[in-house]
Amino acid sequence: MNNTNKNILRSGLILFYILIIALITFGISSLYSYLNTGADRSKMLHTEQIQDRYYIPIIKWNTTNVEGRQVDATTLKSVEEDYLNAWYVKARALKNNTLTGIEDYYTENATKKVTQLIKHNLSQQINVEMTTLEHHPKIEFFSEDGQLIVLTDHNVLEYHQLFKNEKFIGKSTTINTYKVILLLEDGYWRVRQMIKESTKDGLQKSTSNDLKMSLKGINYYPKNSPWDTFGPLFHKDTIAADFKIIKNAGLNSVRVFVGYEDFGKEYVLQEKIDKLLLLLDQAQQEDLKVLITLFDFYGDYSVSDWTMTQKHLISVVNAVKNHDALLGYDLKNEPDLDFDSRKKQTVESWLIHMLYRVKSIDNHHPTTIGWSNISSAQSLIEEVDFITFHYYDSLVEFENAVVELRKVTGDKSIAVTEYGMSSYSGVWNLMGSDEDDQALYHKEAQELLKKNKLSFMSWTLYDFESIPESVTGTLPWRRNPQKYYGFLDSRGKKKSSFEYITSQR
């Protein structure tokens, strides 16, 4: 019995010593691995806050004729990421008057300069919202030890808004050139010095492309997928059949909507682009032109969001710009409805910059903005190629309103890209209009449009059995009338108004 206990004790001691040796060995190997790999970048710095790319301006590098060491692709990728992060954290610092992330992307001396600026802004109760939309850096020098880069960032497109005591003071768009020194520290390219070498105001003026045809068109959604043209029910046969109806009715154009989130926001989904191109193909077969309304259901406009909306726009415009069925671009549907909630100066500045970007990619197709009413159509006249507005008021005031608009629009073409009347007169709208009233409305509307030589796109081809709550809300007196604006009912049968879908056949 005693021998048995001694054997158990010996075995326990041996196992204990083996465990101790294993733990020591594991600790030494872990320390060796840590010393060889270095610290985790995401733990050492504040990069967890910017792992998702919120700042994606256009950046075009020039790495020709670099003095010193040649820049390989891996190094360039790292430099670009850290350099853009430096711009991003500085923009965030100016907006919030905090220094979060600054020391991660600026050297000690450069951080001191940013700190002084933030202290000054705090003392004056100043905040700055800014972004850059375009960079053209030329690497001038790369040291042989791979620790220092000198570059000149040409034609940096910047936008600033200045606030004092939380009140808007002013805004500016400038194109600047910077001399920049980057230093590699702890595996990160930090800004050591950034000096502005030149600056000029404003955006370059683009060539104007007026509307080259008289529009006789209609806003289009398939009857089974209202406000979701490119959703799961999309089928080219449905589009083809509807476009044949539109063509045979005597119309020559359609207006369709590209949803910002539906198409993937800044990373546009190829499957959505493919559906949009299929729709354009079907339009071409019927000799119809397509006005594409961009950024549908987008409503942010924050300056910090601009690089992402720009990336979305670039993807969509590049995909469709060479299609023969493309009529042009309606940049945004009814942005004036966001003036109060999103600040008019911010919305208008966003529109100007996005119009500029469209023109920089496609200067052959005209641009417009689909204002919600005729009064708002007097905005940004110089920035668009033709004027469009929506009209749901009484037709009695229509002609006088057009006369007033033409006083400020000059020779630019004008189109009414939404107008119509609901034929709903049910329990939630007992005093509403019926199908005969709707037909009379369109008869009078066509007479006015023809008399005033205005292009038009009516609302809309079909009645709908249901409408997404995101469009009208849940209140039945809002939802139900919206279902009955069509020239065809939800089964595809012609309503009385179909006779007046256009005045010319």
Q: Give me the count of strands.
A: 14
Helix-strand makeup class: alpha/beta
- In CATH terms, the superfamily of the largest domain is Glycosidases
> What share of residues are in beta strands?
15-25%
Q: How does CATH name the architecture of the largest domain?
A: Alpha-Beta Barrel
Number of helices: 14
SSE pattern, N- to C-terminal: HHEEHHHEEEEEHEHEHEHHEEHEHEHH
- Which term fits the overall shape? globular
Strand order of the largest sheet: 7-8-9-10-11-12-13-14
The CATH topology of the largest domain: TIM Barrel
Average of per-residue pLDDT values: 92
Total domains: 2
Please estimate the helix content: 25-40%
The CATH class name of the largest domain reads Alpha Beta
Stretches where pLDDT is under 50 for at least 5 consecutive residues are 33-49
Rg, Å, rounded: 30 Å
Q: How can the largest sheet be summarized?
A: 8 strands, parallel, barrel
End-to-end Cα distance, whole Å, is 113 Å
Explain this structure to me?
- A hairpin with a 2-residue loop joins strand 4 and strand 5.
- By secondary structure, the protein is an alpha/beta fold.
- It folds into two domains: 158 residues, Nuclear Transport Factor 2, Chain: A, CATH 3.10.450.50; 285 residues, TIM Barrel (Alpha-Beta Barrel), CATH 3.20.20.
- 34% of the residues are buried.
- The protein is globular and about 100 Å long.
- The chain has 14 helices and 14 strands.
- An eight-stranded parallel barrel has the order 7-8-9-10-11-12-13-14, surrounded by four helices. Strands 1, 2, 3, 4, 5 and 6 form a six-stranded mixed β-sheet that branches.
- It is 38% helix and 23% strand.
